[in-house]
Design a protein that fits this description.
heterodimer, A: about 110 residues, mainly beta, six-stranded mixed sheet, five-stranded antiparallel sheet, about 55% strand, globular, B: about 120 residues, seven-stranded mixed sheet, four-stranded antiparallel sheet, 11 strands
Chain lengths: ~110, ~120
């Protein structure tokens, strides 16, 4: 079945890079996403990558996709305290459903 | 980017009453909207897919008679939690699919429901 897994917690120092990893199981995934959720708020789309791409860079964000291993990562350069949030990995399958991972809580220490 | 709003942002109701939550796409027409439920410190669980002009498609385990979904127009979908109980207390989030054909979804800010 469809499943998306990611580590639950990551702690980094301000100014360092953060790397959040995610694995998925559905090989028919078309788009893969990273969402950010701050406490008590909805989800904010950070970036997405189409399944035929290996990498996408958008300012401080770099997404790497290894389709063979079904592994997706999000790198945040120069992490700031304002980046502290929960980051969800998600995939949209051929059936147009979006499956979310459990979320990685990023804690940035000043 | 596209904007999706939800109303109310939070609601407290008594056990046994019904609560309606609205989801609106503000600057685009959405033929498909989604309703999710999120428990504290957990991921989003898809409850149902709302299709304009037709019946919603519910995920396995979601009671369609308890969670009534209506998608009467291209910009509005509503979720009604009927005969609410404390275990229905949760964060409900809707999303709307980008009509341009991309697989992108725009999420509403969420509605926090507390049933006392």
């Amino acid at each position: 079945g469809e499943d998306v897994e990611q580590s639950l917690f990551l702690s980094v120092r301000e100014g360092d890079s953060s790397v959040i990893n995610c694995t998925y199981t559905d090989s028919s995934s078309t788009y893969l996403y990273w969402y950010k959720q701050e406490p008590g708020a909805g989800l904010q789309l950070l970036t997405y990558i189409f399944s035929n791409m290996d990498m996408k860079q958008d300012q401080r964000l770099t997404v790497l996709l290894n389709k063979k291993d079904k592994h997706l990562s999000l790198r945040i350069a120069d992490t700031q305290t304002g980046d502290s949030a929960i980051y969800f990995c998600a995939e949209t399958t051929g059936g147009f459903k979006t499956i979310f991972g459990a979320g990685t809580r990023l804690f940035v220490k000043a | 980017g596209a904007v999706v709003s939800q109303h109310p942002s939070w609601v407290i109701c008594k056990s046994g009453t019904s609560v309606k939550i609205e989801c609106r796409s503000l600057d685009f027409q959405a033929t498909t909207m989604f309703w999710y439920r999120q428990f504290p410190k957990q991921s989003l669980m898809l409850m149902a897919t709302s299709n304009e002009g037709s019946k919603a498609t519910y995920e396995q385990g979601v009671e369609k008679d308890k969670f009534l979904i209506n998608h009467a127009s291209l910009t509005l979908s509503t979720l009604t939690v009927t005969s609410a109980h404390p275990e229905d207390s949760s964060f409900y989030i809707c999303s709307a699919r980008d009509p341009s054909g991309k697989y992108e979804q725009y999420f509403g800010p969420g509605t926090r429901l507390t049933v006392t």
